[in-house]
């Protein structure tokens, strides 16, 4: 299945669904920040996500409980690849350099990055 880019609203709904696992529309709304979106808005977004292949449902009478068909990791890989190609000329070094310069890391985070780089070097 080809993964498509999500709109901001679709991504917000997916973030909640990924956290919850399986959920009814009301459960998703409960998890969202204030001001809460209208039920019909979230219901429409869920149906769009279902049409895009991100979500499926199981029926309980007239109610539907939704679940993700695309994992958060799969979408993360897609979004990171899009970011890498669109803004960093497919250069992980350029992307890492940007994040290091723009997002001041504390010593603990820097040490963790160095540990990950050493681990990758050994592969």
From TrEMBL:
InterPro entries (alphabetical): BlaI_family, WH-like_DNA-bd_sf, WH_DNA-bd_sf
Protein keywords: DNA-binding, Transcription, Transcription regulation
Coiled coil: none
Pfam families for this protein: Penicillinase_R (PF03965)
Gene3D superfamilies per UniProt: Penicillinase repressor domain, Winged helix-like DNA-binding domain superfamily/Winged helix DNA-binding domain
Family of the protein in this entry: Belongs to the BlaI transcriptional regulatory family.
Protein name, UniProt field: BlaI/MecI/CopY family transcriptional regulator
Organism of this sequence: Olivibacter oleidegradans
């Amino acid at each position: 299945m080809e993964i498509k880019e999500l709109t901001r609203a679709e991504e917000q709904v997916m973030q909640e669904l990924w956290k919850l696992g399986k959920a009814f529309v009301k459960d998703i709304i409960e998890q969202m920040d204030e001001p809460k979106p209208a039920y019909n808005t979230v219901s429409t977004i869920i149906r769009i996500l279902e049409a895009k292949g991100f979500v499926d449902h199981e029926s309980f009478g007239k109610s539907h409980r939704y679940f993700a068909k695309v994992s958060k990791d799969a979408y993360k890989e897609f979004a990171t690849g899009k970011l890498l190609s669109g803004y960093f000329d497919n250069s992980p070094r350029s992307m890492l350099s940007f994040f290091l310069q723009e997002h001041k890391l504390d010593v603990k985070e820097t040490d963790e990055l160095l540990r990950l780089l050493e681990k990758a070097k050994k592969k």
